[in-house]
Amino acid sequence: MHEMSIAVNIIDILKGEMEKHDAARLKGVKLKIGELTAIEPESLRFCFEALTEGTNMEGAALTIEEISLKGKCLTCNTTFKLDRYFTTLCPRCGGKPGNLISGRELDIESMEIE
Side by side, which strands form the sheet with 61-67? Predict the structure, then answer.
């Protein structure tokens, strides 16, 4: 379960930011997670809750925005949703996707502290 190590890293980053801002408590955090990361949001949520129990982060609202896999057509530059195997052809011209433009994200979008 790689979600545990990811949760540990996220918590370490949050701790550092909380220290910088002299925050007493984490109220919430918003993450953006791309489809290609293969992170199971509910597993990550479980790990986050388990690791923050008894800390100043316990009970923080964890919001996860899942970002779909999108590519850009090599022929006509249309942006479109891809399947996980990159076999989806452009819905406009039938061309192949060239550039992956979303789906690899693993970002802390924001955090709410007090």
Answer: 61-67, 26-34, 106-113
